[in-house]
Design a protein that fits this description.
The protein is α+β, with helices and mostly antiparallel strands and 432 residues long. The chain is built from 16 helices and twelve strands. Strand 5 and strand 6 form a beta hairpin. The longest helix is centred in the first third of the chain and has 18 residues. The termini are far apart. 45% of the residues are buried.
């Protein structure tokens, strides 16, 4: 067990990893449980199962019938939710610090006692199918789904977390329950607490609520490895609407962390993205900036070729993509926007990012990261999220690592990753 100035990292005897951090700026605490399961752990036939299981864990238990946990959290003035993504499923409660044990009680209970009532599962099928149908009304979702399906031909990152419609229509209650029993175990989970409490006392509460839960079997490993891309790929999606979109996905590195070595390319790409499009928040709370001095804003938006431009680079367990997305302005075409965007990427070779641009980009990236982790909820999010794809040290040393990026680093990753042979290009072309 590590106990360093109010921060504890340890593992219970049943395999549950525990991170606890004192943060006494306000009388608030946030408690999360992260499970190492998401759409990365799915295959054709059960796509969307992790998201569906997440929904089922809000259907209540014997101790907390449906709606009881929400009401109990609301009575204390707290926030309560969950989410599923490629690499994880997580649940959290943020409460007044002297009421945080309620969050621990709820999470420990539903780690083992969710009943998966057949009627509730059938009802939730209609909810999730409706969610999928709603997404299909969004051209950006349709384009992204087609683009990622082309960018990843082997790895499960190629399908959306919501899942394919055919799987949502045919999955059974027993498949959902088996997925729950396989992945919702202490040894496949990370418990995180941050807030106004004594770290040792919080650890004792976590041991009290979670320590007796059986550890379960090891979760099945993911063996899929996406082969190297050998040339540009293209997709075109036609559909309703009057707005066209352009998206590019460049294959990018994983964000693993060895005991003393960080993956340097990720931080250099983060700085490059800030110079190209403006800094993003990297995670799920906290947004990005609209940087009117960024290269792609000036080349695409200021010239009125595009109504908007954005970049996205997120930490993942396995190699993922760096995305550039543009909303095509009326009167122009995806081809025109792509030509102008590619001209800027080509210009990076002859006119690399300057020291002045880099200094500004790093400052923005650091500000966005600080903003996304300034609350106890944000700190707990980053602690657990980092533990999924690397470890807590990745979060702790982020500022130092992004600050160490050099002009040469940015030039190197631009040449390595932003080449046409490493990308998948997608157009959404409105039919009306």
């Amino acid at each position: 067990m590590k106990n360093n100035g109010g921060f504890i990292k340890t593992q219970l005897s049943n395999g549950l990893t525990v991170l606890v951090k004192e943060a006494r700026a306000a009388p608030v605490a946030s408690f999360w449980v992260w499970y190492r399961v998401g759409s990365r752990n799915e295959h054709t036939g059960i796509t969307g199962i992790s998201h569906w299981v997440e929904h089922m864990l809000f259907k209540g238990t014997e101790a907390f019938p449906q709606g009881a946990a929400d009401k109990a959290i609301a009575r204390e003035g707290g926030a309560f939710n969950g989410m599923t993504w490629y690499d994880f499923t997580t649940y959290y409660a943020t409460l007044p610090a002297d009421r945080i044990e309620l969050g621990l009680h709820i999470e420990a209970d539903r780690m083992v006692n969710a009943p998966f009532d057949p009627d509730a599962a059938a009802l939730e099928r209609t909810v999730i199918i409706s969610e999928r149908q709603g997404a299909e009304n969004n051209p950006e979702f349709l384009l992204s789904e087609a683009l990622m399906g082309s960018a990843f031909r082997v790895h499960p990152y190629g399908h959306e977390t919501i899942g394919h419609m055919c799987d949502l229509e045919t999955m059974t209650r027993d498949q959902l329950h088996a997925h729950y029993r396989t992945y919702y175990t202490p040894r496949n989970a990370v418990a995180v607490a941050a807030g106004d409490f004594c770290a040792d006392e919080m650890l004792g509460l976590i041991e009290r609520h979670f320590g007796a839960i059986p550890n379960g079997a090891d979760a099945p490993p993911v063996h899929a490895v996406e082969p190297p891309q050998k040339g540009e790929r293209r997709v075109t999606v036609e559909g309703e609407g009057n707005v066209a979109y352009l998206e590019m996905a460049f294959r990018s590195p994983a964000v693993t962390r060895a005991p003393s070595t960080h993956e340097p390319d990720f931080f250099a790409l983060t700085a490059l993205d800030a110079a190209l499009t403006g800094a993003s928040g990297l995670a799920f709370f906290g947004g990005g900036t609209t940087n009117k001095s960024s290269r792609l804003y000036k080349a695409l938006v200021a010239t009125e070729l595009a109504a908007g431009i954005s970049g996205a680079l997120v930490p993942t367990v396995d190699p993922y993509v760096y995305n550039l997305s543009a909303v095509v302005r009326a009167g122009h075409t995806p081809a025109e926007v792509e030509e102008a965007l590619q001209a800027e990427l080509t210009r990076l070779a002859d006119q690399p990012v300057t020291q002045e641009e880099l200094t500004k980009a790093i400052k923005q990236a650091k500000a966005q990261f600080a903003y996304s982790s300034e609350t106890v909820t944000g700190q707990a999010l980053w602690m657990g999220y980092s533990e999924i794809f690397a470890d807590y040290g990745w979060f702790e040393s982020y500022i130092d690592n992004i600050s160490a990026v050099t002009v040469e680093d940015v030039h190197r990753v631009a040449q390595t990753y932003l080449k046409p042979s490493n990308r998948t290009v997608g157009w959404y072309v409105p039919t009306n």
